């Protein structure tokens, strides 16, 4: 089980949002300062989300490059507004090791196999789940697909890895949605879990289910010496 610290970007800051709500920022720090804290813990990979890019529909390559510059060689997994093959290539050229795509494949699901075939292990497909359905456009809209439908399409397309977020748990420290992760792990596709992961007990539970890795946001802050009044 890999533990992946999250770096969520809004403007020039690393932030934490509650349940993906842009109006509920519960932590904020300049990007380079927060990145330095994460790098010091020597994680296997850093999960970067350009929240602004996800909302506006275009990854900000300049912030990816800023993160790469202070990453000390740690691989970066990048997402947020990546909605075309060229955008994936641009993110990889900017220094990302892996790229997460959601909206592009759920609003035009014929593209799913093309993305999977073109980028193979460098691609993760996002299953951002709210009320049993896949959300898109920075979690502001619904694709109309439920989880089982999405999993079937991913298997058929040959997707290598899923990034699965329980939106209602994100930024809440309520623990992961274990039922959701059992469901997606049963697909046989490698799963990176996100949303509500608090501590080693949650990590052990996700590992027992079969998740390959887990993203920690608020739950990782104590490892960085950050305490929140929450």
Protein model, in words:
- This protein is of the alpha/beta class.
- The protein has a single domain (2-224), classed as TIM Barrel (Alpha-Beta Barrel), CATH 3.20.20.
- 33% of the residues lie in helices and 29% in strands.
- It is built from nine helices and twelve strands.
- The protein has helices spanning 31-40, 51-56, 61-69, 85-93, 103-106, 112-119, 147-157, 178-185, 200-209; strands spanning 2-10, 13-17, 25-30, 46-50, 76-79, 98-101, 123-130, 133-136, 141-146, 161-166, 190-194, 213-216.
- It has an eight-stranded parallel beta barrel, surrounded by seven helices.
- Strand 11 (190-194), helix 9 (200-209) and strand 12 form a beta-alpha-beta unit.
- Helix 6 (112-119) crosses helix 7.
- The model has no long low-confidence stretch (mean pLDDT 93).
Coarse morphology? globular
Query: What is the number of strand segments?
Result: 12
Mean pLDDT: 93
Q: By helix and strand content, what is the structural category? A: alpha/beta
Approximate helicity band: 25-40%
Unreliable stretches: none
Query: Biggest sheet: strands side by side, in what order?
Result: 1-4-5-6-7-10-11-12
Name of the CATH homologous superfamily: Aldolase class I
Percent strand equals 25-35%
CATH topology: TIM Barrel
Distance between the termini: 27 Å
CATH architecture: Alpha-Beta Barrel
N-to-C SSE string, H for helix and E for strand: EEEHEHHEHEHHEEEHEHEHE
Main sheet properties: 8 strands, parallel, barrel
Radius of gyration: 16 Å
The number of helical runs is 9
| CATH C-level category | Alpha Beta
Task: Please give the domain count.
Answer: 1
């Amino acid at each position: 089980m890999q533990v992946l610290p999250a770096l969520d970007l809004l403007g020039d800051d690393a932030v934490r949002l509650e349940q993906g709500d842009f109006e509920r920022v519960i932590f904020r720090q300049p990007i380079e300062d927060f990145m330095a804290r994460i790098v010091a813990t020597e994680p296997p990979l850093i999960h970067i989300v350009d929240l602004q890019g996800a909302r506006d529909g275009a990854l900000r390559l300049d912030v990816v490059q800023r993160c790469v510059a202070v990453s000390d060689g740690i691989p970066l997994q990048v997402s947020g507004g990546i909605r075309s093959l060229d955008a994936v290539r641009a993110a990889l050229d900017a220094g990302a090791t892996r790229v997460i795509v959601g909206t592009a494949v759920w609003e035009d699901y014929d593209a799913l196999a093309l993305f999977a075939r073109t980028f193979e292990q460098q691609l993760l497909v996002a299953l951002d789940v709210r009320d049993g359905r896949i959300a898109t456009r920075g979690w502001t809209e619904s694709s109309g697909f439920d989880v089982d439908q999405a999993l079937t399409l991913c298997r058929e397309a040959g997707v290598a890895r899923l990034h699965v977020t329980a939106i209602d748990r994100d930024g809440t420290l309520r623990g992961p949605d274990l039922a959701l992760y059992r469901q997606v792990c049963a697909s046989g596709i490698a799963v990176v879990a996100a949303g509500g992961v608090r501590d080693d007990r949650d990590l052990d539970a996700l590992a027992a289910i079969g998740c390959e890795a887990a993203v920690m946001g608020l739950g990782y802050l104590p490892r960085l010496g950050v305490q929140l009044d929450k």
